[in-house]
Amino acid sequence: MGKILNGKELAKLRADKLKETVKILKNDGIQPLFCVINIGDNPASKLYVRTKKRQAERIGIEEKIYQLPNDETEEDVINLIKKLNADPKVYGVMVQLPAPEQINVNHLMETIDPAKDVDGLTPSNMGRLWQGDHFVEPATPSGIIAMFDHYGIELAGKDAVIVGRSNIVGKPLAALMQERNATVSLLHTKTQNPEYYLKNADIVVSAAGQANLITADKIKEGAVVVDVGINHVNGKLVGDVAFDEVKEKASWITPVPGGVGPLTVESLMEQVVKLTRRANGR
Ligand SMILES: NC(=O)C1=CN([C@@H]2O[C@H](COP(=O)(O)OP(=O)(O)OC[C@H]3O[C@@H](n4cnc5c(N)ncnc54)[C@H](OP(=O)(O)O)[C@@H]3O)[C@@H](O)[C@H]2O)C=CC1
Ligand SMILES: Nc1nc(=O)c2c([nH]1)NC[C@@H]1CN(c3ccc(C(=O)N[C@@H](CCC(=O)O)C(=O)O)cc3)C=[N+]21
After folding, report:
1. Ligand 2 neighbour 48 (Cβ under 6 A)
2. Cα(29) to centroid(ligand 2), Å
3. Would you say the CB of residue 140 lies under 6 angstroms from ligand 2?
4. pLDDT score, position 161
5. Contact yes or no for 173/140 (Cβ under 8 A)
6. What is the C-alpha to C-alpha distance for residues 13 and 149, in angstroms, rounded to an integer?
7. Active-site residue (options: 52, 116, 171, 218)
8. Strands 3-4 and 203-206
9. What residue spans define the domains of the chain?
10. Which regions of the chain are under pLDDT 70?
């Protein structure tokens, strides 16, 4: 039976350490502060923004939320980002995704100062990630790598499959895992024969947003299974993995909730502190 990759517990461990670092900064008069721009009234986004704020407060980080209406223009959001870029008290700027359709997310990402890019999603930081010379990492991939490190899960030479190729999860995670010498396949809805890749994978990461996508019959005995998916089925929060059956076949598995989610939030806080320190030359 698979052992549990306890993201919640690891997130707490890392947060306690980070809190100490923040305490030292604050003693020296440096207050880590980041801003989250949330456009529209997507209930899930509002929940995430609140979860982040709670976690930030626990660590001693200030989070300022800019809640914008659903019909906000791209130009207005860009102007807000420019204002935050210019504010020396602000060390991080991020846009909660998804954004309403009148907004081209790439245009927003191009506007965020790469030195304040806590989400690691600006073109230059995404580019650096693939060049192997990065400073910030997108939160979810960063949390997943921290989890592999903590539990001693070796990536070198392993066959890894990531289901989903989004800019916030699949693509940056592929960069980080291949940097650790895994051989990475990125699967998506046009993949001809997903079963072929999954059956051979030593490590499976699912970030598709489809409940029960990964069942026991699809994976290799002893695979490491990481579930990024967040789905609501009959009022219950589940991932992409059929947890009860897959845990019998996997060597390691993340639960949902309590797996990747808490690590995502914690990793974001790590990036806020990293950028705050860098901006202050420490
Ligand atoms: N726990 C956490 O911290 C986080 C959780 N999430 C969750 O992860 C999930 C993915 O989010 P996000 O990364 O934003 O991705 P998107 O929702 O933007 O995209 C989903 C990706 O999965 C692919 N996909 C969907 N269904 C299948 C399928 N049946 N077979 C193969 N590929 C499939 C899509 O392929 P195509 O490109 O061809 O459309 C696409 O690349 C969501 O449930 C989200 O809520 C996201 C971020 C953080
Ligand atoms: N610019 C941007 N960056 C993101 O990183 C980003 C985003 N936009 N948009 C949405 C997704 C999703 N995401 C999650 C964060 C925390 C949990 C989380 O804390 N989950 C808890 C459960 C929460 C609950 O009960 O609903 C858990 O899995 O244990 C989940 C998902 C970040 N995302």
Report:
1. yes
2. 31
3. yes
4. 99
5. yes
6. 14
7. 52
8. unpaired
9. 32-113, 139-260
10. none
ipTM score for this prediction: 0.98
Catalytic one among 55, 116, 117, 119?
Answer: 119
What pLDDT, in 10s, does the model give residues 32-47? 999 999 999 999 999 9
Report the DSSP beta bridge partners of residue 232: 237
pTM of the model: 0.98
Token pair for residue 108? 């927003």
Determine the atom of ligand 1 nearest the C-alpha atom of 169.
Answer: 13
In CATH, 32-113 is 3.90.650.10 = no
CA 94 to ligand 2: nearest atom = 1
The predicted-structure confidence for 43-92, as pLDDT tens digits, reads as follows: 999 999 999 999 999 999 999 999 999 999 999 999 999 999 999 999 99
AA identity, residue 238: V
pLDDT at site 134 = 93
CATH of 139-260, one of 3.40.50.720, 2.60.120.280, 2.60.40.1740, 1.10.510.40: 3.40.50.720
